[in-house]
Amino acid sequence: MRLKDKVAFISGGARGMGAAEGRMFAKEGAKVALGDLREELGKEVVAQIIGDGGEAIFVTLDVASEESWRKAIAETVNRFGRLDILVNNAGITASGGVLETSEETWDQIMDVNAKGVFLGTKVAIPEMRKIGGGSIINISSQMGLVGSDTGSPAYNASKGAVHIFTMSAALRHAKEGIRVNSVHPGPINTPMLDEGFVAPDRESMVISRTPMGRRGEPDEVAYGVLFLASDEASYITGSALVIDGGYVAQ
Ligand code: NAD
């Protein structure tokens, strides 16, 4: 098992890619804490993991609040004794160009997608120091590497922030054995994508621009996150793993 005896915290673990990572990590031997605002859904994922013979807990978390992060990580460490892995996965999306984006929307996207990653990293590092290292995986997006003429500039900016923040955090903590990497998914088959594809023609436009010509599946991202979380990636820090069906290669 690739994560045997490790403890992993996954934000936004109640559905979508975070839930897929939770299930996969538990199968690979990790004890998993899923942090999310969606308590009911999160508890269902935890029940599935336990039903499949894994170990998991649900923890209420608002990633935009430092106090919430402190409580969530403390609860995880109280329950499982340590913290080896943090996946900063929680995120929200938006629509509309520069002129359609309100100040409120900009702040909300930045609070969850960018500040949420910073706060999770800040609260996790002291726990990882106690055990001599760890792995932090920040979920950015293909939209954190390239611009978009149809997507939300606020979303782009928040995911770009995650990309550069990841490199700086990696450099700061490399000597402590704390690895920090980002993952950049393309269009992945999750509730967020369905919500973002409500506008007519948006899905066909995005998929037609994706060289592989289809949505990715949550497990196709989770395998990459699993690799970065595991000791197999022991010499990888500050890197950006692109899992996007070829989108940013164009
Ligand atoms: P999703 O909406 O299906 O799941 C996201 C989860 O995050 C939800 O359970 C939600 O409740 C939780 N969340 C939102 N705000 C939160 C907050 N303030 N505190 C705690 N939890 C919160 O989304 P997904 O598609 O699984 O996306 C996961 C990550 O991948 C996000 O960061 C997203 O931006 C990124 N991403 C998604 C795609 C895609 O096509 N689906 C592509 C690239 C990147």
Detailed description of the structure:
This protein is globular. 47% of the residues are buried. Helix 1 (16-27) links the parallel strand 1 (7-11) and strand 2. It starts with 6 loop residues before the first strand and ends in a 7-residue tail after the last strand. With 250 residues, the chain is of the alpha/beta class. The protein has 8 helices and 7 strands, in the order βαβαβαβαβαβαααβ. It has a 7-stranded parallel β-sheet, sandwiched between helices. The structure holds nicotinamide-adenine-dinucleotide. Nicotinamide-adenine-dinucleotide is lined by residues 11-12, 14-18, 36-38, 61-64, 89-92, 112, 139, 141, 185, 187-188, 190-193.
Described by the principal axes of the CA atoms, the overall outline is globular
Radius of gyration over alpha carbons? 17 Å
Order of helices and strands: EHEHEHEHEHEHHHE
Q: Give the percentage of residues in beta strands.
A: 15-25%
Query: What are the segments in which pLDDT stays under 50 over at least 5 consecutive residues?
Result: none
Compute the separation of the termini in Å: 36 Å
Which structural class matches the secondary elements? alpha/beta
> Which percent range fits the helix content?
40-55%
